[in-house]
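During the practical work, I worked with a single protein chain and the tokens that describe its fold, as given directly below.
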Amino acid sequence: MYILLTGPPGLFREGVEALLRGFAQDGEVLASNCLTTSWPNNRKPDCVVMDGDCLRVASDELEAARRHSRTTPVIVLLSNAQRQHVDELIAAGVSGCVEKSASSELLFSALRLAFAGGVYLPRSLVAASLHEPFAAAEADVDANANADPNADADADALRGLPYPDPHLHLTPRQIEVLALLTRGRSNKVIARQLDVSEATVKTHLTTIFKALNVSSRGEASIVAARMERIRDAQVDKAINGRITVGRLLANMKSQHFRSGQVLFRKGDTSTELFYVEKGTVRLSELGIDIGAGTVLGEIGLFSPEHRRTSTAVCKTDCEMKTVSAPDAIRFYYREPEFAIYLIQLIASRLQADKSRRP
């Protein structure tokens, strides 16, 4: 495990760094002054912990967090967790916000939840939304932490938020909007994916928030995670081929490959998969051409031996995004649509390969 801690140097950063080293006992913690366009030492961390008090005055830091949170869990530490600011961070894809007054165990719980693909909300906001005294909520949390120091943060983050009414009525379009919101999509992205206006998305969200009895995007995401219809909508989207892989990989860098260039050979160790944006790739042994909008290299990546099953050669000049094995696994766990897309893709290619054999 490799955790990157960002923030101004000083006693606070040194203290958090020491706590994180205790959390990642067999891993590594690196402290850096800021989060930039590239990773420090060109090493991609498994998680980023940021001093969130710098984000209000450093817009580039927030943009970097927004960009990196698509592939790496980001936890933000805040002195004062204001609802609007937290909602902005959650909408940007941040995996959780933790108040600096919280206990170390709450920080660890937020980290465990982020690694599992969940979202952590500050206890003060959860308590305030329920009109409960913060002290009572904090005492409840501490009691559970003492009872089970390894407890997952899911229960902690969900405690007190309403369970959705099993007879709750939401229209099919509202289900789609809520499913995308749960994946951290902004209003603009939701509007683009559903081919509607942002004003329409806002109208849907107003209705959804009222129906779920919540007051923020973060709370709506947590409650929606309990709704079977939301999970079904995400699964249906993938099964029926409506997932846009290019959107999921939007923040990955594109690379140019020349005609005739070999991407990998049969039997090579598989360390990454490819998404073809432009051009055509030939799978030599299978005699198949792979075109734009297609993923390749997934079978070797997920096979027990991690070996390539065919040789891939660029038939034309190509533009492709490459996804490392750790990033692919992270996408698999954090994006249900991507997971089912890969399963469906692998199954169809194995079936096609079997049908070609005599």
User: Anything to note?
Assistant: The two ends are 46 Å apart (CA to CA). The CA atoms of residues 284 and 311 lie 6 Å apart.
